[in-house]
Amino acid sequence: MKMILAFATATAALAMGIAAVPDAVAAREAPPAPAAPRPFTLPQMTAYALPNGMQVTLIPYGNVPKATILAGVYTGNIDDGANVWLADMTGALMQKGAGGRDASQLADLAAGMGGSLSLSTGLNLTTAAMDVLSEDAPQAIGLIADLLQRPDLKAGELEKVRADLLRNLSVAKSTPDSIAEDAFASVIYPDHPYGRVFPTQKQLAGYTLDQVKGFHAANFGAARTHFYVVGRFDEGAVRAAIENAFGGWMAGAAPTALPSPVNTAPRVILIDRPGAPQSMVMMGQRVDKPGADVDFKAANTLLGGYFSSRITRNIREDKGYTYSPHASLSDRVEGASWAESAAVTAASTGPAITEIYKEIRRMQDEPPTAAEVQGIKNYMNGTFVIGLASRKGMANSLATLDLLGLGAGYMNAYVGKVSALTPADLQAAVKRELPIGKMSMVVVGPLDSVRPQLEKVPEIASELPK
């Protein structure tokens, strides 16, 4: 009997000990509270201008013996006028040869420097960039100068470029998201280059070599260019190379200023895709230039701008209406805009739109929780710093911010501004920027089944086209 009692006592004690172990382990393994974000400060940079007006920014950065070189020219589709994609055709043809070297020779020369040469055409900014070994930075500067100043623009390459662009156009205009984007842009940016997403095939087929040469001559010049070198480099050698390669470039015209009109009458556009299993929905509106307004950036992130956003949790995780909804904030020089886009099941088109409106109103009616806002602040500060952790990220970020007129001061103040945000700030930003009555919408889908659903959505029922 004593042995039984002793065993029972020992078993009970052991059980109590086991029960206590998880609590102790949990206490030991609980992660520490996150520290306050450290202020971010850009490395010491050198900024100056050449006599012809070209701006230069040099940033010693990192320890790897490489340098990222980026030339941002303030031109692109903003200068297309009615010739949609003429900027794209010009950029594509420039890459086919420059300074007497064809595309293959340019690529081989860049590879010998430990990198590659690229040119990208955007709405307001065309960039030429290389990432090379430090000792090759002066030679790379000369190669970029050839590309920007002395493209060959040969007739024999024009038809190859045209064929590529025609193929890209055909593919893009066959997808519902591109169809929706085209229609949405035409509403948000009426009678403006931002609103002309695609040319017609006839337009693209008709552009001539003289038009391409004319576009290059009119829009590429020193006064429109900001040159960046980021990484490890010999500053004296780099400055000498920039002066030698770009000092004689003509200034040319100042960057184009073409404010986009605001469409004060919201519209609903319906585009039929009979039998489609999904509807592509884009809804949104123009917003005030939000570049420096971190409150609306944070509100957009919480509302729909990242995977754990409210709209995503609602119509993806909870309702299963869509796989990949996303809210985007477009910081554009001539007018910013906000949009929520989602490919939803056709049978759930109306309910999905109703839930999106519901989430916008919920943020307007009540501030988010402190925990939500803290999560957004951590996310924004983290992605911001990570984005600047590479030479390329630093160069691209600076080029974009300089284009928007924000510059290095914005970057140095960003973490502090985000860290100071409150729930009331996010609520006020959504009230200010997203009044429901100004929102336009495009729906691309099977209208025989979708339209009756839209007629039950009070926010747009009266705006449906007859």
CATH C-level class of the largest domain is Alpha Beta
Structural class: alpha+beta
* Count of discrete alpha- or pi-helical segments spanning 4 or more residues: 17
Can you say what the CATH homologous superfamily of the largest domain is?
Answer: Metalloenzyme, LuxS/M16 peptidase-like
Please state the average pLDDT score. Answer: 91
Domain Peptidase M16 N-terminal: 92-196
Protein name: Insulinase family protein
InterPro entries: Metalloenz_LuxS/M16, MPP/UQCRC_Complex, Pept_M16_N, Peptidase_M16_C
Domain Peptidase M16 C-terminal: 208-378
What does this protein structure show overall?
This is Insulinase family protein. Keywords: Hydrolase, Metalloprotease, Protease, Signal. Belongs to the peptidase M16 family. The chain is an alpha+beta fold and 466 residues long. It has two domains: 201 residues, 2-Layer Sandwich (Cytochrome Bc1 Complex, Chain A, domain 1), CATH 3.30.830; 196 residues, Cytochrome Bc1 Complex, Chain A, domain 1, CATH 3.30.830.10. The chain is built from 17 helices and 13 strands. A six-stranded mixed β-sheet has the order 1-2-8-3-7-6, sandwiched between helices. A five-stranded mixed β-sheet has the order 9-13-10-12-11, sandwiched between helices. Strands 4-5 form a two-stranded antiparallel ribbon. The longest helix has 28 residues. The radius of gyration is 27 Å and the shape is globular. It starts with a helix and ends in a 12-residue tail after the last helix. The N terminus is likely disordered.
